[in-house]
Specification:
Distance between the termini: 122 Å
Strand content: 15-25%
Strand order of the largest sheet: 1-4-5-6-7
Order of helices and strands: EEEEEEEEHHHHH
């Protein structure tokens, strides 16, 4: 079994160290050719592979190769990315587009149609000077129309406020006139109300008296008398109508007995003599 830490290395018999060449470049210089590095990115747009027809949706993650190109937009560098199709492993390249703040698909795939993008994939989303001028004029006209609409809305709001104030003033004046006219007729209305209240009170009192009179009448139409009145009339007039009044008195229950008056005086309990139960006899007192 070989050692884990090898201190000596094997050199074949035909090894010639003079044949080893080491290319050294000055410090700070970049290697020739484009600079390439591996990065992790997500698909910036939805695309369709031209080789197998696989759809690659926006946001899918890839291990891509990032290449710095010689192209520049003003002083902004343009980068190119290389990814592989998830189905056929075909190479797909796209690069940044600083002018339109977007990405441009170069080869290996075709970008899907998107409504928000101006122009199609064929013209690269470019806009001519005439189209740009027309678009600016159209936007300026829309802004002017928006300002005119806003001014018209402000004028309409002011008119509505003025109309509302005038209506409030008219309502206040009418209410004041009605109040002044009602003061004169208020006395007559008050007298009529008092008369109606007095008539209602009299009618209610009459109904109450009739109900009370019927409550103290027997089935024969005679009035039920009290016990004192019943005894006095029995002595004077005999037993003519006393039987009816007496029977009515007998039907009344006797008055309940008065409840005992509560007292809060402390009651002293008598102690039990437990000595007799245990057989203990008390000695009589000598004194």
């Amino acid at each position: 079994m070989s050692e884990r830490k090898v201190l000596t290395k094997y050199y074949p018999p035909d090894f010639d160290p003079s044949k080893i060449t080491r290319a050294r470049r000055p410090r700070g210089s970049t290697p020739p050719g484009p600079k390439v590095q591996t990065v992790r990115l997500m698909a910036p747009f939805s695309m369709k592979c031209t080789a197998c027809g696989e759809y690659i949706y926006k946001g899918r993650k890839f291990n891509a190769r990032k290449e710095t190109t010689d192209e520049k937009y003003y002083s902004i560098s343009i980068f190119r990315f290389y990814i592989r199709c998830t189905r056929c492993a075909g190479e797909i390249t796209f690069k940044t587009d600083p002018k339109n703040m977007d990405y441009t698909c170069e080869r290996g795939a075709r970008r899907n149609f998107e409504m928000w993008r101006q122009g199609g994939e064929g013209d690269g989303g470019k806009e001519t000077d005439e189209e740009r001028l027309d678009r600016l004029e159209r936007e300026e006209g829309e802004e002017k129309n928006a300002m005119e609409e806003l001014e018209a809305k402000v004028v309409d709001a002011k008119q509505e406020m003025a109309i509302a104030d005038a209506l409030d003033e008219i309502r206040t004046r009418n209410a004041r006139n009605e109040r002044a006219a009602g003061v004169a007729a208020g006395k007559e209305v008050g007298e009529l109300v008092k008369e109606r209240v007095e008539e209602e009170r009299r009618r209610v009192e009459a109904e109450d008296e009739g109900v009370a009179r019927r409550a103290f009448m027997t089935e024969m139409g005679e009035r039920v008398r009290r016990i004192g009145e019943e005894d006095g009339e029995g002595e004077e007039g005999g037993g003519g109508s006393g039987g009816v009044e007496k029977s009515a008195g007998e039907m009344m229950p006797p008055p309940p007995a008065p409840a005992p008056v509560p007292t809060f005086k402390r009651a002293v309990k008598k102690k039990k003599d437990l000595g007799a139960a245990l057989g203990i006899k008390k000695k009589p007192a000598l004194v």
